[in-house]
Design brief:
Belongs to the binding-protein-dependent transport system permease family. LivHM subfamily. With 304 residues, this protein is mainly α. The protein has a domain of 211 residues. 72% of the residues lie in helices and 3% in strands. The chain contains 11 helices and 2 strands. It is globular.
């Protein structure tokens, strides 16, 4: 094997890591918004990702059977629908369950874990236990070869572009919109935010729903790199919590940095060792760094 081949393999593994990075970042962004705003540990976050993934599959099936001529165009529209459905589900869950459990972290954790199991069973009952995959548009198939021996999947490029777009929108919304101002005021000092007229309960609900909607977009991205089953979301929840903890809770910049580091470490090490050992290596490095820096890569402001 020549040096050129080794470089190309390393680049392709690195790009495979970017696809994983995209899913982890979208999952982590939603969790960071929810955890940073309300301190809620949402164990059902992975199921909101699954809602997004199943939305893509069902719209793909519907388009293929009813309007096959629209198959090249359905995917961007389906991503928007995935966000909306996950957003609505998150809004309802916050209204029906989460709002009654604020400042009770253990109860919230157990309740959302129970919700996670209930949603998984609902997926099995109404959609089926088998894993499914959508029919992707033709323009997302194939690969781009910028150099001989280097093939980069086009669907991976699309997922990366989608992730960058969503991250940019979240950053702009958090620092340039009225909602973002209310979120930052509530995180900084909830009592004072209430005193100056901010409806913190409504802010909490909207924030939780937006976080869940972003998880729905993560599910849409996931369908381009894997098949979807009832437990697909739960397979990513631990990694997503690692991203948030390692980056620093409530720090969006930390979430981006830790998602990139975790995905690249795992992907590149998988080329040299088995997948399970790569996960062990990644986790060991995270634990070691957190022992040195317990607050994560970027220290977060604590709400009073």
């Amino acid at each position: 094997m020549t040096l050129s081949d080794m470089v190309n393999i390393g680049l392709m593994q690195g790009f495979a890591g970017l696809s994983l990075f995209s899913v982890l970042l979208l999952m982590g962004l939603g969790l960071a918004i929810i955890f940073g705003q309300m301190g809620v540990i949402n164990m059902a976050h992975g199921e909101f990702m699954t809602i997004g993934a199943y939305t893509i599959f069902m719209l793909s099936t519907l388009t293929e059977s009813q309007w096959p001529g629209l198959l090249p165009f359905y995917f961007p529209f389906a991503i928007v629908v995935a966000f909306v459905l996950a957003f609505v589900a998150g809004w309802l869950v916050e209204w029906a369950l989460i709002r009654h459990l604020y400042r009770r972290p253990l109860d919230t954790l157990l309740a959302t874990w129970g919700l996670s199991l209930a949603l998984q069973q609902a997926f099995r009952s109404f959609i089926g236990p088998k894993e499914v995959s959508p029919t992707l548009p033709e323009w997302m198939m194939g690969s781009w070869a910028p150099a001989e021996g280097l093939d980069i999947p086009i669907n991976g490029l699309f997922v990366m572009a989608l992730t960058l777009l969503v991250t940019a929108i979240v950053m702009l919304a958090l620092y340039r919109s009225r909602w973002g101002l209310r979120v930052r005021a509530t995180v900084s000092n909830r009592t004072m935010a209430n005193a100056i007229g901010i409806d913190t309960k409504r802010t909490d609900r909207l924030t939780f729903a937006i976080g869940c909607g972003i998880a729905g977009v993560a599910g849409a991205a996931f369908t381009t790199i894997g098949s979807t089953g009832p437990t697909s979301g739960s397979l990513y929840i631990v990694d997503a919590f690692l991203v948030v903890t390692f980056g620093g809770a409530a720090s969006l910049l930390g979430t981006v940095a830790s998602a990139f580091g975790i995905a690249q470490t795992q992907s590149i090490s998988e080329f040299f060792i088995t997948g399970s050992m790569a996960k062990v290596l990644t986790l060991s490095l995270i634990v070691l760094i957190l022992m040195i820096r317990p607050q994560g890569l970027f220290a977060a402001k604590v709400r009073h």
